[in-house]
Specification:
With 196 residues, the chain is α/β, with parallel strands linked by helices. It has helices at residues 2-30, 50-62, 82-92, 109-123, 137-148, 173-192; strands at 41-45, 69-72, 100-103, 127-131, 153-156.
């Protein structure tokens, strides 16, 4: 009987360690980061902390990672679209209007991918750096990969979001909730194949 309890304690201990590793690992899984190299276009999709996302795309452009930048995102209200706001941010940062492309109609990640693909096809570009918030990066990557297809290369580069940390996502209300939400959405698209 004593041997049984020792074995049970070991099994429960191993399961606890695995559960903790899975729990902590969720943040890292949601936020894949690529070793950056030059690409044909930087694609920035709007959403949480859109200004920070645009800043990341602008910074990457200024570092010479791409010759084009695409901003994607509709308006949240009756005002200008997120894409137009990011474009203005880029213009104010000194980026030439001729290298900026906008998609002002996308209202979700799937539409971001579909409409960005149309722009990329017109430009005949196949390699992109995808910029979004870190907690959204994996789902955006999987969606873009599905929509763009095998002929495209996607590199991941998340913007900074002061509300979320991949190593401590469970400590704050917003971070905890958005992590669970993104995990559920990601699980859904991967299991069902429905990216819309």
């Amino acid at each position: 009987m004593k041997k049984f309890f020792i074995t049970l304690a070991i099994i429960l201990g191993v399961l606890a360690v695995l559960a903790m590793a899975f729990f902590v690992g969720i943040g890292y899984y949601l936020s894949p980061q690529s070793k950056l190299e030059k690409a044909d276009a930087i694609v920035v999709i709007s959403g949480g902390q859109t200004t920070s996302r645009a800043d990341k795309g602008i910074d990457l452009y200024k570092q010479g990672y791409s010759k084009n930048i695409i901003f994607s995102g509709a308006a949240l209200d009756d005002g200008p679209s997120n894409a137009a706001a990011m474009q203005q941010q880029a213009l104010s940062a000194g980026i030439n209007a001729r290298v900026i492309y906008t998609d002002e109609s996308s209202q979700d990640t799937y539409q971001n991918a579909v409409n960005s693909k149309e722009i990329l096809q017109k430009l005949n570009e196949k390699k992109i750096i995808l910029v979004t918030s870190p907690y959204h990066q994996r789902r955006a990557y999987e969606t873009f990969k599905q929509v763009l297809g095998q002929d495209y290369t996607i590199l991941n580069a998340s913007a900074f979001d002061d509300r979320w940390s991949k190593s401590r996502w469970w400590e704050k209300g917003f971070a905890f909730n958005i992590t669970l939400s993104e995990s559920a959405k990601l699980f859904y698209i991967l299991v069902t194949g429905n990216y819309k």
